[in-house]
Inverse folding.
């Protein structure tokens, strides 16, 4: 509308005839999907794509210094324990490779796919571990996310999102960076 007045009933009817509803996912996050770009523990460059041809991925934002992360490192080895299907995968996203004990991080990961990607923490609005984001290629935004209160709570949220009823613990007011 370019004029400061309301449409007449006839004008409004014409506009509504051509209108198409916009699909809205109730309970979904407003955080846009972006690739997880960083490095692996061996120093090799790693970019984990999140586009429509990629599998559904559960990004677990974890840290060695986080007591609440310990069971999630273990659960990451068994994706079904986190509510994922056979074709889905888990990605552990680390902020840094700093560790209190040499080799502990390698042991905790136990072969789980991972990336050290501090920028991903900002892009996905993660202020601290443990946190999870379900990256579903069917959507342009995170399917569900929240504080990872343990493997069982993550699995419950992931199963709900996979069933089409995502629930975001704390709705975001904007998609901006978290500091």
């Amino acid at each position: 509308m370019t004029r400061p007045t309301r449409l007449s009933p006839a004008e409004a009817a014409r506009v509504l005839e051509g209108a198409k509803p916009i699909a809205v996912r109730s309970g979904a996050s407003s955080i846009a999907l972006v690739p997880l770009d960083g490095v692996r523990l061996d120093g090799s460059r790693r970019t984990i794509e999140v586009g429509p041809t990629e599998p559904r991925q559960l990004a677990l934002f974890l840290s060695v210094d986080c007591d609440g992360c310990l069971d999630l490192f273990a659960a990451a080895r068994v994706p079904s324990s986190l509510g994922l299907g056979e074709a889905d995968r888990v990605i552990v996203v680390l902020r840094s490779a700093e560790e209190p004990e040499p080799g502990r991080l390698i042991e905790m990961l136990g072969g789980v796919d991972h990336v050290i990607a501090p920028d991903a923490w900002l892009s996905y609005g993660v202020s601290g571990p443990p946190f999870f984001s379900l990256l579903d290629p069917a959507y342009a935004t995170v399917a569900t996310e929240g504080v990872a209160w343990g493997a069982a709570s993550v699995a419950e949220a992931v199963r709900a999102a996979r069933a089409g009823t995502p629930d975001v613990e704390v709705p975001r007011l904007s998609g901006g960076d978290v500091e």
Strands lie at 36-39, 45-48, 57-62, 89-94, 114-116, 131-135, 144-147.
